[in-house]
């Protein structure tokens, strides 16, 4: 059963939830329904801190709101714990797609790390096949309910492990079975993209697109590594790219901005930033600028012409949705419908779809916003 969507409205009355949207940065193991966790945990004998759905949802949000990425990631021990069987993976993926469809997403890229789902004897290939089966069931559910959605998998390697090439080969092996791209995730500081250079070389030889978590828990060197070792076409978060931008406010009327070579490169190449506002607050990614949404460099990057996109990262941990993130940004920075459309067009342009499909996606977004 699909979670009931919450309608978020702009001041002019436009329903953000009903608008066609693109989701690029959304973790499968960060988007489970609390009640599903409870039911799956009971079937495998996994102890939980709470056995009521609402209470469990509150527990995840509280534990995730620590200001530390390392602490934030600990909550995933529970979600990955209930995703070790074929049945668990299928159900979670199916419901994930249902919830995206209910939120107005028409193209979603779901990232997840197959190597974290082998505890019950599944092979890497079996995990990908199970997730794809759930995705296809979810797509059918959305379509049968009158909606429209397409989904691609982003197969992720854990940057602290030593399986990068193996996971890259897995991703390429399933490029005809729903996998559209590759990612690395996990503890960022101390584990640069260069450690997985062999995997990225393999992906480049096979013309397979990559996005890399960078500029979240580490700074500019991590972003450089993502771009030049990882050949990243997008930056997962990338919010700390703002460290390479100098803002000099001489007075209330005159502000001067200077981009460093790295930020200028990212801007000129139109490399998309997969920004996740609520998550960035929770993990402390923007702590050098402040601890409220108004302090987030999102608007600075947008006004300077970077290809900013809006994402949820982990909907369970942040108690959020793509519509909610857009509503929060609109309220904080006084964005209107045209701004939200730009964010969706940016995401469509940066998606790991063939050019013709991206053009079709742009048309769907434009038509949907015109009718709003």
Automatic annotation (TrEMBL):
<dbReference type="GO" id="GO:0005829">
    <property type="term" value="C:cytosol"/>
</dbReference>
<protein>
    <recommendedName>
        <fullName>adenosine deaminase</fullName>
        <ecNumber>3.5.4.4</ecNumber>
    </recommendedName>
</protein>
<comment type="similarity">
    <text>Belongs to the metallo-dependent hydrolases superfamily. Adenosine and AMP deaminases family.</text>
</comment>
<dbReference type="InterPro" id="IPR006330">
    <property type="entry name" value="Ado/ade_deaminase"/>
</dbReference>
<feature type="domain" description="Adenosine deaminase">
    <location>
        <begin position="20"/>
        <end position="366"/>
    </location>
</feature>
<dbReference type="InterPro" id="IPR001365">
    <property type="entry name" value="A_deaminase_dom"/>
</dbReference>
<keyword id="KW-0378">Hydrolase</keyword>
<keyword id="KW-0862">Zinc</keyword>
<dbReference type="InterPro" id="IPR032466">
    <property type="entry name" value="Metal_Hydrolase"/>
</dbReference>
<dbReference type="Pfam" id="PF00962">
    <property type="entry name" value="A_deaminase"/>
</dbReference>
<dbReference type="GO" id="GO:0046872">
    <property type="term" value="F:metal ion binding"/>
</dbReference>
<dbReference type="GO" id="GO:0043103">
    <property type="term" value="P:hypoxanthine salvage"/>
</dbReference>
<dbReference type="GO" id="GO:0004000">
    <property type="term" value="F:adenosine deaminase activity"/>
</dbReference>
<dbReference type="GO" id="GO:0006154">
    <property type="term" value="P:adenosine catabolic process"/>
</dbReference>
<dbReference type="GO" id="GO:0046103">
    <property type="term" value="P:inosine biosynthetic process"/>
</dbReference>
<keyword id="KW-0479">Metal-binding</keyword>
């Amino acid at each position: 059963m699909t979670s009931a969507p919450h309608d978020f409205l702009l001041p002019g009355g436009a329903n953000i939830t009903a608008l066609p949207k693109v989701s690029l940065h959304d973790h499968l193991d960060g988007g489970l329904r609390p009640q599903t966790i409870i039911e799956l945990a009971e079937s495998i004998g996994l102890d939980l801190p709470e056995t009521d759905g609402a209470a469990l949802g509150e527990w995840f949000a509280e534990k995730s709101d620590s200001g530390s990425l390392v602490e934030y990631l600990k909550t995933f021990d529970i979600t990955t714990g209930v995703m070790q069987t074929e049945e668990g993976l299928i159900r979670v993926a199916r419901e994930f797609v249902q919830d995206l469809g209910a939120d107005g997403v028409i193209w979603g890229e779901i990232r997840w790390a197959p190597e974290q789902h082998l505890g019950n004897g599944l092979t890497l290939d079996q995990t990908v096949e199970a997730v794809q089966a759930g995705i296809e069931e979810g797509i059918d559910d959305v379509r049968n309910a009158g909606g429209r959605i397409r989904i691609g998998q982003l197969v992720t390697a854990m940057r602290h492990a030593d399986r990068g090439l193996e996971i890259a080969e897995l991703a390429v092996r399933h490029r005809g079975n729903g996998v559209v791209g590759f990612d690395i995730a996990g503890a960022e500081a101390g584990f640069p993209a260069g450690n997985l250079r062999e995997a990225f070389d393999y992906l480049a030889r096979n013309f397979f697109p990559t996005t890399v978590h960078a500029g979240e828990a580490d700074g500019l060197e991590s972003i450089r590594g993502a771009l030049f070792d990882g050949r990243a076409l997008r930056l997962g978060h990338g919010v700390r790219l703002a460290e390479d931008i100098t803002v000099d406010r001489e007075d209330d009327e005159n502000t001067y901005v200077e981009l460093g070579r790295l930020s200028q490169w990212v801007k000129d190449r139109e490399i998309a930033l997969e920004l996740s506002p609520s998550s960035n607050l929770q993990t402390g990614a923007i702590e050098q600028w402040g601890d409220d949404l108004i302090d987030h460099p999102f608007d600075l990057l947008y006004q300077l012409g970077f290809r900013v996109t809006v994402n949820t990262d982990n909907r369970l941990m942040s108690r959020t949705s793509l519509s909610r993130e857009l509503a929060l940004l609109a309220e904080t920075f006084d964005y209107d419908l045209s701004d939200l459309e730009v964010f969706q067009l940016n995401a469509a342009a940066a998606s790991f779809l063939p050019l013709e499909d991206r053009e079709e996606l742009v048309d769907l977004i434009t038509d949907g916003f015109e009718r709003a």
